[in-house]
Amino acid sequence: MLKEKINELKKALLESSNLAEKMVRESIQGLLKKDENLLEKVMKKKEPMMNESEIKIDRMCTNLIARFQPEASYLRTILMVFRINYELERIGDLAVNISESARFLIKRPEVKPLIDIPMMADISMEMLRDSINSFVDIDTEVAKNVLERDSIVDGLRDQILRELITFMAADPSTIERSIHLIRISRNLERIADLSTNICEDVIFMVEGKIVKHKKDNRI
Amino acid sequence: MESEVLKISNLSAGYFDNNVLKNINMIVPEKKVVAIMGPSGCGKSTLIRCINRMHETTNGAKQSGEIFLRGKNIYELHSILVRRKIGMVFQRPNPFPTMSIYDNVISGYLLNGIKLKKSERDFIVEDSLKKAFLWEEVKDTLHKKGNFLSGGQQQRLCIARALAMKPEILLLDEPTSALDPKATVRIEELIVNLKETVSILLVTHNISQAARVSDFTAFMYLGELVEFGTTDSVFTLPKHKKTEEYLTGKFG
User: Do A191 and A154 form a contact (C-beta atoms < 8 A)?
Assistant: First the structure.
């Protein structure tokens, strides 16, 4: 009985993570294609769906704990779903932040061609997808691989910041647009961070190793 | 809105001067499991004995109020007909000791003088035993006496016996309290499965069991129905303080 319910819970979480990924992808696509309708969709339609999903999964977890008093791996799984659910809702919020900045930028001339931001977005979304898969499949190798990619995203964020500082210093009229670009890169970097949080929890759940709070995510 | 198979209306009952049930109002929805939980002596068993009209057979029994089975007042029907439509399984497995497994299942028809063709009898026996998750274990020994089975198997035989009469609702009075943990798990799986076929009213003193298997939960205390709601809501956010206290182990 409980096993089936846990499978239903994981399925709901997968649907939620697909929604979160879609929100991030569409917010970046809206920026690249200058598609304001797509950005509005992320902010006005998808965000409420994400919030509803968070409440629904929260309730499912609470009911399972209240009704079945799960132990051992079932308990750890449900507690992890609680945490991942929260991270996914945060990712939805970050996608909204990206959309807001994108909506500002698409109405104005580009500061520079967008190359690093789409690259950051691709890596962050891949990390998110893999982190969820590592949880569903209980695969610590995939989880560890995600942790190693975090430094790439951090590197891109730093690179974007350095470049934009140069632009802002040379031309103060680019400051407002640059700040929005920095905000987007910062939000993408946060998405990667939240994905590593998920993977750290998977590693702890399976191996009992605490890899949180290590600066270089060495395992 | 769920359709209801059983409706209890202002039911009070007791023995001599003792009032055991006080003005109970409750429904059992179609194809759902309703668990009745509460401390010992709260009136759970008296309630279900009223439902299948066994309470009135007790010396000194008294009752008032109404119980409707699919809209028909059960006190306006013959009690034997009521007990066909409202199956009951007791705490202690009680297969008829002199009957074979086969005859135990169709005993309701045999004892009521209802004649069936062999093919009909065979079908009812197999169908009921399959629904009770017992067929595979006994299909080659149907001629053997029922009390050669284990406790858990005997209880499933009793459930099959009740199901054979195609009841509208099945009353289970602490069906696992005399069984070992493995047999208990089997019965709980059976209960969850059975609700596709028949509505179930389960009396249990085991809070965890009520939480695991039921769709709705009723909490009784000192003869009163204190709270009734979905099991999710009763176990996560009970409305009544007494329910909260019972669930958190302050009494019971």
Answer: no
CATH number at residue A78: 1.20.58.220
The length of chain B in residues reads 252
Residues facing B202 on adjacent strands: B35, B172
Closest CA relative to residue B53, chosen from B83, B85, B28: B83
Residue of B nearest to A5 (CA): B212
pLDDT at A217 exceeding the cut of 50: no
Distance (Å, rounded) from C-alpha A189 to C-alpha A173? 26
Residue A201 has pLDDT above 60, yes or no: yes
Q: Would residue A55 count as lying in a domain?
A: yes
Distance CA A30, CA A49 (A): 19
A9 has a pLDDT exceeding 70: yes
44-63 of A, contacting B, C-beta below 8 A: 59, 62-63
Partner residue opposite B236 with nearest CB, options A63, A68, A69: A63
Domain that holds residue A137: 2-207
ipTM, interface predicted TM-score of the complex: 0.79
* Residue among B180, B125, B174, B172 nearest B153 (CA): B180
Residue A214 included in any domain: no
Give residue for tokens 């809070």: B207
Following CA atoms A163, A165, A166, A171 in sequence, which dihedral angle do they give, to the nearest 10 degrees? 130
Residue B136 has pLDDT above 70, yes or no: yes
Which candidate, A6, A144, A4, places its Cα nearest to that of A81? A6
- B235 closest CB neighbour out of A1, A59, A67: A67
Q: What is the largest CA-CA distance in chain B?
A: 56
Q: Tens of pLDDT along B161-183?
A: 999 999 999 999 999 988 999 99
pTM of the model: 0.84
